[in-house]
Amino acid sequence: MKKQVQKMLINFDYDGVIVDSFDELLDIAIRASEEFPASRKPAKEDFHSIENLTFLDLGQLIGLNGDDAKQYSDAVFSEQKKSWSVSLFPTIAEVFSELSKYHTLVVITASESQVVSENLTALGIRDTITKVLGGELGLSKSDRIDMVCKELGFEKCETLMVGDAISDIRQGKLANVTTVAVTWGFQDKQLLAREQPDFQISEPAELLEIYPK
Fold it and tell me: Distance of CA 63 to CAs 54, 66, 71, 176, Å?
């Protein structure tokens, strides 16, 4: 008799995990900063090292405070709607197709949910994903993990958070779920390893080996 697969809720970050969007996102962040003369332009290193990878925190990092940082975050969302073309990392489509046969896949992202959903549709994998929860909700990733667990009926022991930034791992741990760090995204593998994720992987196909069966 074939062993039954344990159904899991697998939450994915978007930028740097599903799509190769670094250059596009940096360009959008720079364009948004031009509306705020008091700020400096975001740089590559900001994305590589920022403690909490949200646009609000990025705004604070480039010199904005309070309402200005929030307005900067809103400006990034607006820029995303104007121009946003990205590509899937290699083998992501195949991995998502296989995972979605047994598990529930959700995207939890700093980017704007409608834009992300439209991109996933254009890239041909939206039908493998149950929900997209974007940064415009104003909730931390741990809060969104809690929310989607309750909404979809999963226990924390049945839930994973897959991300490419230290903040993804920290938010997953805060939500008390299994954490998976991927090394093909925005932040360096040594930086990720210091957060002691439950798993650290170097290519998407490894996801097919680590989820519980």
Answer: 15, 10, 13, 32
What would the pLDDT profile of 86-96 be if each residue is shown by its tens digit?
899 999 999 99
Distance of alpha carbon 209 from alpha carbon 165, whole angstroms: 21
Rounded-to-integer distance, Cα 180 and Cα 98, Å? 18
C-alpha 64/C-alpha 34 separation (Å) is 12
Is the separation of the CB atoms in 179 and 172 below 8 Å? Answer: yes
- Report which of 13, 16, 58 is spatially closest to residue 188, judged by C-alpha positions: 16
Mean pLDDT for 169-195 is 96
pLDDT digits over 70-85, tens only?
Answer: 999 999 988 888 866 7
Contacts of 94 (CB under 8 A, 6+ apart): none
pLDDT given for residue 38 in this prediction: 84
pTM listed for this prediction: 0.89
Q: Centre a 10 Å sphere on the Cβ of residue 131 and count the other Cβ atoms it contains.
A: 17
> DSSP code of 18?
T
Whether 133 contacts 117, CB under 8 Å: no
How many helices (DSSP H) and strands (DSSP E) are in the chain?
Answer: 10, 8
Give the CA distances from residue 112 to residues 17, 75, 107, 180, 186, in Å, rounded to whole numbers and listed in that order: 16, 11, 11, 23, 18
